[in-house]
Amino acid sequence: MDMDNDNKIQIQQILNIIKVSSLAFPAVAFLQYYAKMPDFLMTLRHEVLIISILLVILLVYSLWIFLQSRIVNKAVTRKLIDPIVSMSIALLSVILTGSYESNYKFLFIFVILFTSIECGQRTSLTVAGLSAVIILCVDLVYGPKTDVNSYFEGDIVLACVFMIISWTVGYYDNIRKKHIAYLKELANIDGLTELYNHRYFYDYLSDQIVEAEKKGFPLSLLFIDIDNFKYYNDMYGHQRGDDVLRSIALIMKATFSKGTFIARYGGEEFAVILRDYSEERAVFEAEKLRRAVQEHPFDGQESLPGGNLTISVGVSTFPVKARTYAELIKGADDACYRAKFLCKNRVEAYFSILNEFQFAPEVITQIKTLIAVINAKDKYTYRHVERVVFYCNMLSDQLSLDEDEKRNLIYSAYLHDIGKINISEDILIKTDPLTPDEWNTLKNHPQYAVDIIKNNDALEEVKPIILQHHERFDGTGYPQGLAGDAIHPLARLLTVVDAFDAMTSLRPYQKTKTYSQALDELRRCSGTQFDPFAVTAFIRCMEERNGVERCDKAFIYPAGTENIADLDSETPCSV
Predict the structure, then answer these.
(1) More confident position, 574 or 474
(2) Of the residues 286, 317, 350, which one is the last residue of a structural domain?
(3) What is the domain-level CATH number for residue 482?
């Protein structure tokens, strides 16, 4: 972008020099004309006359530049008015300095030059043709009517020179522009897939957001991630993996309409920008792409989980779901993650529970700030929180909690792990089992969380829920060792959800359980670690299809699964 601006500045400097020259030479011509006028003009000092003429020309030029900056359609204005004004000045100079005998016919060359650079070859050829016609007409109108005009043959040669200069400069400028466009294309294109690259994606999206905001049309962003691609790469090698990337790029080009912006975002991730697409239309297009990829016969896909190579797609739309450039990207990224979290091979439209309910603005602001801090420190905790919120929202609908209870449960789900902000990053991201001292440090995070929000009166009702979400129903939990009904009812619900997600999530120091295995573990620990009522409610929520309907009818099952029992007990449903 900076190089483009530098190039434009340099070209504009050349144009300014040519235009100033096209005004300076007529100034000399006007001076010659005034020098031949009656004696009363000669009483003026030559210096004053010259300075006055130059000042007038400078004033006219400055006025013209100012007017150009105020006119809305500048490109059309330059193409039409700039050459006309300059040709008029050149013609007047020729007429005042001897018409057909004038030595200033070359002034038209300046007009041809800046028109070739500024407006292109076609316009410059038109200006050259008009200039040739003008000087020949001057010969016919002002030349001798009886004798032979000795200047006519020279002017025919000059007219040919006009055309040659116009064609040559215009042709060179076309080559230059094509070469620059080619270099830009190389800089903006991903070499493997021949889609746009990551860098250009950000430049283009930024421009589109500005235009969408200005003109008021929706802008949808799709993030696409290939499911199990690392597994495929490890099994068949990177060359076969590259073939898959190229194939999916071709499928995307065939699926979306011509001119749609498609980019390789990085690795096995792609991005699509859909201008003037509502969320509903964008989701429809994303689903077409998902089906096209699912139905494509990739080599070796039978060895993948599910026997098929698929994609997960996240959709976010400006300005409905995102108000800024950064929010649009984050929304599409979160939706894509959620699609992978919900067992992959699906399309997810972005939604935020915080935006769905009329919660206190100052509380939402604080929650979003704390979430951002968690995300920067520990990606797992951030994703874990997102999933726990998702489950809690389903569970609150399953139990028909009132608005206050639902709000408090969701607040608690968002904030239950914020105490980890005060715990060393080395402990949070450690891949080996924690030592007893490290474990004791980690067990302080519920109290740390309450300490962080202690001065926020709007969160008073969620403090006991957050503090008690690691208490056990039999009284052996922490930090207070509470048991049974002494534990807050919503904390008992949160404990079950938190444990379920921890069991079904990929962690380096523990084996991931399938959904079925995790539900069996909840049943086994019902009455000891977990409240039996909370376990029963959550399992019923997970097993009933209506209980998991959320996110624009997205279900927590792979595409085509009708019942949780259909899940492969050996295939973990996790990212």
Answers:
(1) 474
(2) 350
(3) 1.10.3210.10
Helices (H) and strands (E) counted in the chain, each on its own, are 23, 5
Q: Over the chain, what is the mean pLDDT?
A: 82
Estimate the share of the chain in helix, then strand, then coil, as percent rounded to the nearest 5: 65, 5, 25
For residues 78 and 135, state if they share a domain.
yes
Percent of the chain with pLDDT over 90: 41
How far is CA 550 from each of CA 118, 313, 326, rounded to the nearest angstrom?
A: 56, 16, 25
Active site residues: 268
Q: Domain of 315: which CATH number?
A: 3.30.70.270
Closest CA relative to residue 415, chosen from 476, 342, 354: 354
HEC readout, 63-112: HHHHHHHHCCCHHHHHHHHHHHHHHHHHHHHHHHCCHHHCCCCCHHHHHH
Map residue 469 onto helix, strand or coil: coil
Mean pLDDT over 518-547 rounds to 88
- Residue 306: what pLDDT? 81
Give how many domains the chain has, as a whole number: 3
Question: Tens digits of per-residue pLDDT, 169-189?
Answer: 989 888 988 888 888 778 899
C-alpha separations of 549 from 2, 346, 545, 555 in Å: 48, 14, 7, 5
DSSP-assigned beta bridge partners for residue 318: 219
105: alpha, beta or left? (left if phi > 0; alpha if psi -120 to 50): alpha
Are 253 and 395 within one domain?
no
User: Which of 409, 379, 349 lies closest to 551 in space, CA to CA?
Assistant: 349
When computed from its CA atoms, the radius of gyration of the chain, rounded to whole angstroms, is 37
Give 389 or 18, the one with higher predicted confidence. Answer: 389
Cβ proximity of 426 and 377 under 8 Å: no
Q: What is the residue whose two structure tokens read 């704390």? A: 370
The average pLDDT across 471-488 equals: 95
- Measured distance CA(387)–CA(376) in Å, rounded: 17
- The answer to whether residues 68 and 129 belong to one domain is yes
Q: Which of 285, 331, 339 is nearest to 311 (CA)?
A: 339
Q: Do 436 and 464 fall within a single domain? A: yes
Give 265's Cβ-side CA count (13 Å radius).
18
Same domain, yes or no, for 538 and 568? yes
| List of long-range contacts for 427-433, beta carbons under 8 Å, 24+ apart | 428/377, 428/378, 428/380, 428/381, 429/378, 429/380, 430/509, 431/508, 431/509, 432/509, 433/509
Q: Whole domain around residue 461: which residue ranges?
A: 354-575
**452 and 514 housed in the same domain:** yes
Task: List, for residues 69-109, the tens digit of each pLDDT value.
Answer: 555 445 555 566 778 888 888 888 888 888 888 888 988 99
Q: What is the pLDDT of residue 203?
A: 92
Tokens 């969320």, located at residue: 279
Q: Both 166 and 133 in a single domain?
A: yes
Q: Do both 223 and 322 map to the same domain?
A: yes
Residues whose CB is less than 8 angstroms from the CB of residue 474 and which lie 6 or more positions away in sequence, other chains included: 483, 527, 528, 529
Higher-pLDDT residue of 60, 304:
304
pLDDT at position 575 is 31
**Final residue of a structural domain among 188, 223, 241:** 188
- How many CB atoms lie under 10 A from the CB of residue 284? 13
How many whole angstroms separate alpha carbon 289 and alpha carbon 251?
8
